[in-house]
C-alpha cells in the first residue's frame, strides 16, 4: 500500500499538532460566541479553524510554503461566503457583522496553526477574544452617548404620506421647501403606500450629512399643513 510507503511519523505528528491547536483555539473563540448565543457558535468556529488548518497543512506537505500561500489566499476569500450567510438585514439595521468577522478571524487562526505558526495562532486568539469581550464595555459606553444630529454624519430623509392625486405637486413643494431651508435634496422618490391604494409616500433624501433638528422640524410642520398631506416626519440612519 502506498500509505505504508509514504507514511512518516514526524509529519503525522506535525499535522496532529496543527489540527489540535486549531481545534483548541477555535473552541476558545467559539465558546465566547456560544455564551452570547450568536448565530455562529462553538462548533462553527471550531470547524472553520480546523478546516483552514487542514487545507494549509495539506498544502504545506504537498507543495511547501508556496503551496500554503496559495491555499491561504483561497481561504481568505472563501470564508467570505460563509460569513455572508450569518449577516442579516432587518429594515435599516444589519446584524451579524461581528459574527462574520469572528469567523474570518477563526479562519486566520486555523491558517496560522496549519502553517506551523502555533505561537502566532495563540496570540491572534487572545486578540480576537479580547476584541469580543474587553471592548464590549467601551462599545456600550459609546452607544449611551446622546445622539447629536448637528455633529454626526448620517443620512437624513423627509417622508410625507399623502393622497396619490396630489403627489406630483407635493413632491415639487417638498423639494422647494427643503432647498429654501438650505438642505439640498439628493433624490426624491414617490412610493405606493402599504396601508392604502390611494395613498403614496414621498421620500426626500438630503445631501447634508449633518442637520439642525429644529430646522427640519419647522420644514416638516410646514409640509404637514399643506393640502393633501396626511402625515409628515423626518428620520435619520447612520452611515456604514
Give a short summary of the structure:
This protein has about 240 residues and is α+β, with helices and mostly antiparallel strands. About 60% of the residues lie in helices and about 20% in strands.
Can you put this structure into words, describing what you see?
The chain is of the alpha+beta class and 240 residues long. It has 2 domains: 7-143, no CATH class; 154-238, Alpha-Beta Plaits (2-Layer Sandwich), CATH 3.30.70. Helices cover 60% and strands 18% of the residues. The chain has 8 helices and 6 strands. The chain has helices at residues 2-6, 9-35, 42-84, 97-114, 118-133, 136-143, 167-180, 213-224, and strands at residues 88-90, 93-95, 154-163, 185-192, 199-206, 229-238. It has a 4-stranded antiparallel β-sheet with strand order 4-5-3-6, covered by helices on one side. Strands 1-2 form a two-stranded antiparallel ribbon. A hairpin with a 2-residue loop joins β1 (88-90) and β2. α2 (9-35) packs across α3 (42-84) and α3 packs across α4 (97-114). The longest helix is centred in the N-terminal third of the chain and has 43 residues, at 42-84. The chain is elongated and about 90 Å long. The N and C termini lie far apart (57 Å). It is a multi-pass membrane protein. The chain crosses the membrane at residues 12-30, 42-62, 68-88. Residues 19-139 form the MgtC/SapB/SrpB/YhiD N-terminal domain.
